[in-house]
Amino acid sequence: MLKKNYKLNSDHIITNWIKKKGWFLFQHQIDLLEKSKKGLDVVLNSPTGTGKTLAGFLPSIEDLAQNNTKKLHTLYISPLKSLTYDIERNLKKPINEMNLDISFGTRTGDTQFSVKKKQLISPPNILFTTIESFVLLMAEMKKDLFEKLKFIIIDEVHSIVNTKRGELLSLNLVRLKNKVKPIQTITLSATLKNPEEAGNYFCSQNYVILKPEINKKISLKILNSKNKVPWSGHMADYACEDIYEIILNKSAIIFVNTRAQAELLFQNLWKINLNNLKIAIHHGSLEKKLRLKVENQMSIGELDCVVATSSLDLGLDWGEIDLVIQIGTPKGISRLLQRMGRCNHRINGEIHGYLVPTNRFEFIECNAAIGAVNDLDIEDIPEKFGSSDVLAQHIIGVSCSQDINTSKLYAEVKKTWAYRKLKKSTFIQILNFLVDGGYSLKNYKQFSKLKKRRNGDFFLASSKFVNKYKLNVGTIVESQMLKVKLNNKSLGLIEDWFIQKLSFGDTFLFGGKILKFESIAMDTVLVKGSKAKNPKIPSYAGGRMPLSTKLSKRVLDFLNDEKQWKALPKNILSWLEFQKNKSIIPPNNTLMIEYFKKKNKNISEHFYIFYTFEGKNVNQTLGFILSKKIENLKINPLGFVTNDYALIIWTDKEVINIKNLLNYKSISKNMFEWLENSSMMRRNFRKVAIISGLLDKGFPGKKNFKQLNINSDLIYKVLKKYENNHILIAATNEESRRDLVEIERIESFFKKIKNNVILQVLDKPSPLSVPLLIEINSEYLDKSKTEEFYLKSYEEKLLKDVGLNEID
Amino acid sequence: MKLIKFNDQILLLEKSGAIIWPEKSTAIISDLHLEKSSFFAKNGIFIPPYDSLETLTKLKEMLINNKVKKLILLGDVFHDSKAYERLEKSSKKIFESLIKSYEIFFIFGNHDKFIKIPNIKFFNTFSEQNINFSHEPQIIKKSLICGHLHPKIILKINGRKISKKCFVYSKNIIILPAYGKFTGGLDVRNKEFSKYLDSNTIFFPLHNNKIYKLTNYL
Q: What 8-state DSSP symbol labels residue A264?
């Protein structure tokens, strides 16, 4: 165990408090305090339960204990709202016990307006805030507010580095440091593969990395169920009773990957809850009050179990949680470790966890994940350069409180790690976009949003743009959301498209309740309670992370090593044996394709399954390209689905010689061109258009005439036609390239298989393909082609139904 | 092109969203919302400034292809009453050539009710051969052709959601889809439509330069 008394003056306030508690300071806590005293920025990378948060605040506490200024002294920034409350709760205790006169408060999207206003006039010494709320605070730019700011603590940096949120944060940090100096930055994280990245991203040049050598023992097992692991599905129904038995004796967090899983598991656990365990649900769509209630109950140990999505991934400290149960694989080692860290917050405590595969494929994946956790085989975060849409948003943010001098702002932006390579010409292009849209053939000069002063600086033309900026701040673009109201009580938000799929009277699961869809009024869905047996479950877009390369590789290796199969339960084993009989096990260094034909009413569809094991991104890119090539053969690709292992394309005719399509030379040629009209590009354009401020996010409760909305797909089309060099097109391409086109991986894949392609012609889906066929995440191609096909068949069917013939 | 009978007249529903009345050599269109983009630009939303050009080019082509002589505009031709002045050169040129080449009957819409354009006849409502024309739909005894609501149909087919502009064709009323490039649509299941629909209503969705026919949809 690490221990060492901190040798300050013997009557030092922190030393005394630690002594009184009978505790010790850890070496890394002492180191952090000492390094920060030297004026250095610090990157602390230390497992959960090692006093990371306290370490981060020690310099502030010590400094404030000696000379409190009654001004804002420390800014704590977290990527998660609930984390700010949690840290506040946890810090309150030591500060009170040390009898210190230090004030603190939180500032998030949930904070009341009056409280926020008060904070601007008389700020607390320590302010706990989120990235977005910090960015909004910067738009206020009350200079004297930051006058005495000494420390900025950024928590859970691994989830921010190399993301758009990280870019937004670092742009604002640089701006703040330019205004107030010096400010010291301390970043905290439990799972960082490369701490240098966090240092480069958020710290000044003089930073130190503290990485204590603490290895917590992790005991991770696959849940051994009485029932068989099902062929397919994502819901883990089969294991419900086994899970219940575990939580009977031990307090647990059950992590799931999607909100749909959370809703269903929560329902199922309550159905068998004969012992009246206190089981709660927590996900991002739930009303704030409900979420806070769960968090509070958890922190005081009132709950036996909470079913949660990634909304509880990060650092919340709930004391005595005995174990973590993960439903489905968490898709990455770093995320799995993060989640496992939620339990047993004692430094020497062993971490206990169970993985619950939801289908047979996942069983193998879980096996691989445990191997990787034991080897601490953490993924790299790919580097990402600063994006144009985030910069556009930032420039408007700056203009909310000051004039913009082009060269000064450019120089400031270039100081951030993410934008260090930003070209001046790109910066000017972004600026022009903000001035009047930046169109080259026509212009909106008369309507400029940023106007030019005589000295050449720009200013924001109207204060109404400040409000618009504040409403749209942030980089998280969600689909249109509707409020869910039961008896005039708001339960949370639900995706518009999910409701569109429902008819009046349909029932669905939300917030652990079965609800009946009654009506829509403006942007609110009115519901009634229901006792229906088979409610629909909102499957939410997003939230599903692609499986890391490392795990995919481990899965393929496992499949090809029959000796390892012995560890499998009988039904999984027989599934693989069955696959061996009906088709083959996908070999290493070979691409195996399975083909079968399916008749669905009057439509017949041809399915091709490509087992690449190269991760979702590669499969998606291949999907776009192969579909396009199939289209060139005058065959309609009707759609494709991908997961981390395979790509499935289905078409309206058989593709003869499909092997010929898999020539890398022809695939790499014009790869990007092929992607141009995909739904992925349109989706990314919408994101870019919203983040850059071209389009509004759209808010529930806001008056919203659908007829007057502008469809982002149409804008994208017109923009591509007239202004293909527009900055938003460039930003969309950049985003898509990052999202999908892992050209290098595709290339190395084709090098690896060296034209070894095996086509298995089957009369029905193979055992291995069954779980894949039910994959929910689907991509649609050139919509006009597929829709034509379905519209036509639908029309035909309807005409047939009513016995009418077309009059043409 | 789909052929329908309406108040004993033969009408053609055209794939770009217009109605052709062959007997009168007339084309009928609605809701162009020209200069919608510059209207948004006034509020700092700089959507691409090419909507008028796109819409007018499409309109001109359609008129030439169908060899009509008259044009009935069912309102909301412009997004606001000052939009005509904002038309830039190339779009204005097309619009003026239309005025020269066709006899235009312009019915005011709620968006452009104060608009003034030389050499165009303006009406609040208009009727010919016992067919009435207006911007907004209403329940009247006679047959009515109108626009305003921007009908769109949302189909769920094999788990896919398909959303398309469409004509609404009931016994006494036809509601045209919005002709403009940047115009959104309103789901025909919205209660705004219910007065004008019955079990015999037929919907004609437009897609990819084709027109489809859906009976028995509701």
A: H
